[in-house]
Design goal:
InterPro entries: FAD-dep_OxRdtase, FAD/NAD-bd_sf, Rieske_2Fe-2S, Rieske_2Fe-2S_sf, Rieske_Fe-S_prot_C. By secondary structure, this protein is an alpha+beta fold. It is built from ten helices and 24 strands. It starts with about 20 loop residues before the first strand and ends in a 12-residue tail after the last strand.
Length: about 500
């Protein structure tokens, strides 16, 4: 379902595509990372074009809870466990500068942004241990964190860590301002142009559904990189989570700060105007038995704690986690120094995307600051390797499970799934994905065109989702997101 932000009508017209045009920098993907990258390059006098497959901000950025905070749940201790203090310090410094950049930019561009305190709170003893660890690691990295038992939420908590004066906003307001400023500097933002490949020649050529364009450099800011060079799809963990907007909560009961739980399952909440916004139930893409049940569980949790609250909107979105918790930013291997990537914000992209965009620009201009150098030169420790190996084992398990289940479940010939449902099974020796949406039954090959995983039905978004590397397709098989470059095959392909 469309998020609260994407449902608000804004006029962000697309620029005209000029085939064979040449730019300094082509940016693939018009989310927060791509748009900030384009603006920063345009401000340095580069000619830029952003090429977006759908509409700007329509994936993770437009699904975001848009909490702009340097206190990020329990992220810092995760990074500390898997790397070392120097990387935590660099990550915090990058986020601090990104935070300041967004605050200053919102002010100058007239984006409505509200300052709020941020809390990571605990409801269990293990959560309290995480709260304490976040306090220790964050303080060491220079964050002005405070421990508190004064947590104004409608349920019992054991304590929290707080960072004053963070921020929240409507991410599409920021997107609209960025597009307008890129244009004012002569840059182009082209929508509905799907990029299918990039040749790292001199100049580089970007192949889009509207034609080819050329540039000195190409920046892939597409969530997971759309090119398989560097095998980033195998290093990233694709995760989905939900957003719920609830109305009819009395004003005095709406949260005055932004809260993130340190417990499992994860919960976050904040206020947006007269609505309560709740997020959580993060899970692996294509790995939940019912996404609709997870969404319902989150909404029911909110209704139980804010009596009288009524669901007005439920949506979900996708982000990517790296094995060490620090984004991948920089040159793409075998991209001849012409192709760059930025991904892996682990659900903290409101600062992470801006930090990454600043790194991309500094990489090209050769003015990396010390925190950027520390992130580029980080060593991979056994703890991060173990996380990566664990994810690879999970991928292998989901591959085997998907094929076994598909081949041992014969589909009944002519059977039509009920409205909003999808089924995977065997027709002859072929895994087939059959669904019914808006009265149309569609039968496709259930084999993901990326690397052969078996897709699973997402009963919340009515999409086919691949549990291996997170590619997603609509009911007719068209690519929505992920590393797959083409759609699911029809049965006659
Ligand atoms: C539910 C949810 C809640 C979140 N809440 C928070 C929060 O409170 N605070 C926080 O800091 N972070 C949060 N995040 C994370 C944050 O929203 C993301 O990290 C950030 O928006 C990622 O931005 P992006 O530009 O990298 O990706 P996206 O916004 O996904 O942009 C990538 C773009 O690339 C385009 N694209 C992909 N493939 C192609 C192609 N082949 N050709 C052309 N274009 C292509 C896509 O259409 C898309 O528009 C949340 C994320 C989710 C999912
Ligand atoms: S996304 Fe890689 S196999 Fe499906």
């Amino acid at each position: 379902m469309t998020s609260l932000w994407l449902d608000t009508i804004r006029t962000i017209p697309t620029d005209e595509f000029e085939p064979e045009a040449t730019y300094d920098d082509v940016i693939v993907g018009g989310g927060l990372t791509g748009l900030v990258t384009a603006l920063l390059f345009a401000r340095r006098g580069h000619t830029v074009a952003v090429v977006e497959a759908r509409t700007v901000g329509s994936l993770a950025t437009g699904s975001s809870s848009a909490v702009l905070s340097q206190l990020q749940g329990v992220q810092l201790q995760k990074i500390k466990r898997r790397t070392y203090q120097g990387i935590v310090d660099a990550y915090v410094q990058g986020n601090r500068e990104a935070f300041d950049w967004v605050i200053a930019y919102a002010d100058e561009a007239g984006v409505d942004l509200q300052r709020r305190d941020a809390y990571s709170y605990a409801t269990s003893r293990s959560g309290l241990a995480r709260v304490d660890a976040e306090y220790q690691v964050g303080r060491k990295a220079g964050l002005d964190l405070a421990k508190t038992f004064d947590v104004e939420v409608p349920f019992a908590t054991l304590g929290a860590v707080r960072l004053r004066d963070q921020a929240q906003f409507d991410p599409l307001d920021l997107v609209a301002a960025l597009v307008s400023d890129i244009r004012a500097l002569g840059g182009l933002v082209i929508e509905n142009a799907h990029v299918s490949g990039v040749d790292a020649g001199e100049p580089a050529t970007t192949h889009t559904s509207l034609g080819d364009i050329r540039s000195e450099r190409v920046h892939l800011t597409t969530g997971t990189p759309i090119l398989d060079r560097g095998l980033y799809f195998a290093k990233l963990k694709p995760r989905r989570s939900f957003g719920v907007a609830l109305r009819s909560v009395p004003g005095d009961d709406l949260p005055t700060a932004m809260y993130e739980s340190a417990d499992h399952p994860n919960r976050s909440f904040r206020r947006h105007r007269d609505l309560l916004l709740v997020g959580g139930n993060e899970h692996g893409v294509g790995r939940a038995s019912s996404e609709a049940a997870l969404a319902d569980d989150l909404a029911s949790w909110a209704e139980a704690h804010w009596p009288g609250a009524e669901r007005s909107r439920v949506w979900s979105g996708q982000d990517y986690a790296t094995p060490h918790g620090v984004p991948f930013v920089g040159y793409m291997p075998r991209g001849h120094g012409r192709i760059y990537i930025a991904t892996g914000y682990d659900s903290w992209g409101m600062t992470g995307a801006v930090s990454a965009a600043r790194m991309l620009v500094s990489d090209v201009l050769g003015d990396n600051s010390s925190w950027m150098k520390a992130i580029h030169h980080r060593a991979t420790l056994p703890a991060a390797m173990a996380v990566g190996l664990g994810e690879n084992a999970a991928v292998a398990w989901h591959f085997a499970r998907g094929w076994t289940r598909a081949l041992t479940n014969p589909l009944v010939e002519g059977e039509t799934p009920p409205e909003g449902r999808g089924r995977v099974g065997r027709e002859g020796f072929r895994p087939v994905a059959r669904s019914t949406v808006a009265g149309e039954t569609c039968a496709l090959s259930a084999v993901c065109p990326h690397l052969g995983g078996i897709v699973a039905w997402n009963d919340q978004e009515l999409s086919w989702d691949c549990p291996l590397h997170g590619s997603r397709f609509d009911a007719t098989g068209r690519v929505i997101e992920g590393p797959a470059k083409r759609g699911m095959h029809g049965l006659t392909d």
